[in-house]
Amino acid sequence: MPASYxxxxxxxxxxxxxxxxxxxxxxxxxxxxxxxxxxLLARVARAGAGAVTAKSCxxxxxxxxxxxxxxxxxHGLINAVGLANPGVEAELGELQxxxxxxxxxxxxxxxxxxxxxxxxxxxxxxxLVEAKPDLIEVNISCPNVHDEFGTPFAADPVAAAEVxxxxxxxxxxxxxxxxxxxxxxxxxxxxxxAVAEAGADGISxxxxxxxMIIDVHARRPILAxxxxxxxxxxxxxxxxxxxxxxxxxxxxxxxxxGGVDSGRDAVExxxxxxxxxxxxxxxxxxxxxxxxxxxxxMRALIAELGxxxxxxxxxxxx
Amino acid sequence: MAEPLPTSLPQVARIVExxxxxxxxxxxxxxxxxxxxxxxxxxAWLPGVDEKPFSLVRDKPVTLAVARVGPFTEAVFxxxxxxxxxxxxxxxxxxxxxxxxxxxSGQTAGDLLLVGGGYGIAPMRFLAGQALEAGWGVDVVIGAxxxxxxxxxxxxxxxxxxxxxxxxxxxxxEQGFATDAVHRxxxxxxxxxxYACGPEPMLEAVARLGLSRRVPVQLxxxxxxxxxxxxxxSCSRQGWLVCRDGPVRRVTP
Lengths: 318, 253
Hints:
The structure holds 2 protein chains of 2 kinds. Chain A is of the alpha/beta class. Chain A has 10 helices and 16 strands. In chain A, helix 1 packs parallel to helix 2. In chain A, about 60% of the residues are buried. The longest helix of chain B is centred in the C-terminal third of the chain and has 14 residues, at about 200-215. The N and C termini of chain B lie far apart (about 35 Å). The chains are: A alpha/beta, B alpha/beta.
């Protein structure tokens, strides 16, 4: 819980409900950032996150790409870690430890599933519920494993819906299922409609945008994977537009993710239509403490705008 | 965030000097200067090969000690004067000299103890240089497996530091581990602060000893790293990020 929590009782409480799960505040540690270890998830929760997402895990362990895997450029980060993870079996242990550590902190735990087949997604999700996460996020949109697995499921409404239906069946109501969508598509709303129809309880948007940075002296891309996912301030307006479009297109709750680094940014995302807000690259600037600052800024801004709850602002820009 | 964030992109550098220190360790000096501190590291990139962290032996010009331990360092060993490499950094937390200067402390508690095990001696050269310049008396303990693994001995000696060497087989200096030499030094002298870099069991032993002698100890850790920026979580030790919270950790009694 942030140190300043309750310090100003006239300020609004930030609590929200996401797919029926109560969060102490709408700020969620986005997948792929600091989610590798139970202690790290707990550290981010202590720094003020309302929920934390563990690193995506796959049926089998993955070494990920060689370095360089992450760079900071002028307007954000670019990464191609390549979904390095210890596999669902080992991940279960971390999630169970995280579950225990997060309990007293009040932060929700989101497990993240990744696979290269529809069956694989279902298999991972079925195992993940054993750790009793509050929510399960399904990462059908990683842009960095294209060479291995071809076009992500998130690029095709039929494939995205198949994964969603299979995961929903595997999870069998044990936890709400969020589907994480890619901005690297022509019409993100069409994909969202397909996964919502297939039973998705909510949508996370957006994953990173495919990009590339070339070193002119080396005359080649810097990332070992050549391409990587752009995140941070540069993609925020694009993420806001996607969330705005999704809010018009579907009725399920949306976790808005992309470049949020201030209370103003978070409120903007919520006004676009997000119920909760993912935060990732902001951790680069100041570490997990970014959560406490952003929550404080949100409280002050919400009061200034004359709202009493976060929910009231949801979709206010429409 | 009001201010734009610092970028972390590789900068091209050319090798201007290359020296063999041992059969497995080579010093590289580059035509690039950075504003770094002892204990900080850079990520060195060879296009098409990999990118790995290396402690700064010096920042101006950037100097690195590279031990041949795997495919990346093997590729670095293949580089000659004039060849290019790319460096990103400096990154991480530095070793810090005591806040008050050496003149402020009494005669018995005014020196610094630097312990380097194996390749962990590399950042100690930078630290010793800075400490000596600031007027501190410096004891350096170099711990190695055999005499063939000892490096920078002459440079420490030339810099004015008092140096002790331990080797596991007794082929140079005292036979035993670096911590054995530390024990013996503690019989002669009290230190204001200790600094250690090397294998984790050595760091833990030094930390325990520091706690029992009630002396602050700064330890530099090593872990497999990806981003070096505190975002990917690859280098976490129970929630402590070696790349961003560290690599230097200060343990106080």
